[in-house]
Amino acid sequence: MTDLKKLWEMQQLELKAQQLQKQLKNDTVVKELLQEKKNIENEKQQFKNLEQKYTLLKRKIKEIEDITEGINNKIHSLNDKLYNNSENGNKEIIALQNKINTLKQETLKHEDDELQLMEEQEQLKEELQAMSTDLKDRIKEFLKRREEYYTSQDDIKNQLLEMQNNIEQKFNVLEQEIINKYKQLKKRYQDPVAKVEKGVCTGCRMELTFVSQKKLKREQELVECENCGRLIFIGKEVG
Length: 239
Ligand SMILES: [Zn+2]
What we know:
Elements lengths: L1 H24 L2 H57 L5 H83 L3 H11 L6 E5 L2 E2 L8 H9 L4 E2 L6 E4 L5
Parallel strand pairs: 1-4
Antiparallel strand pairs: 1-2, 3-4
The chain binds zinc ion.
Zinc ion binds next to loops.
């Protein structure tokens, strides 16, 4: 039954096509990609937040610098008053000196604050740089994986198309009787056609009766496995 051999080949193609369909529908990679996209969005948000913090810090440092500058100007003009005014009395001199000292203390405190903020700024800068590098790498990797996924999906689709054409061609040369039988059996089995190897039906693994084996060897009619009902043929021919 060479027709059964063709039918079997077609069946194998159908099974392969089914596998490919499954692969096409498998959305594990899609889920992973979506998750990674979310992670990247989160990291981008974190990056933005840090950037904002950095800008605020910069502004704060500038504010302190302005304040210090104001105080220094004040100290300067007080010094002028102290040294260039010969009419100063003792009391006034002491008062001026006290004022200058208080202002100097204030500057020192501001300078301490500024230094601390600058350290924070430096740390943030490093953090931002590391994050930026990481983000770039992750985005690059993400885009690469997405591209690979699209390519493989296209590849599967093309394979499927070719297979379906192939299946149709194989179907077209078969006798209607065989096609009908096959379609009917397909409701019960994924593989309605089974090879017989060493007298055993490879569909159900049962040994065939002598009568069935004789019928098979005659190759004159469609033979069904007495046990499972599959269409059977001698496997050697297919190899
Ligand atoms: Zn069987």
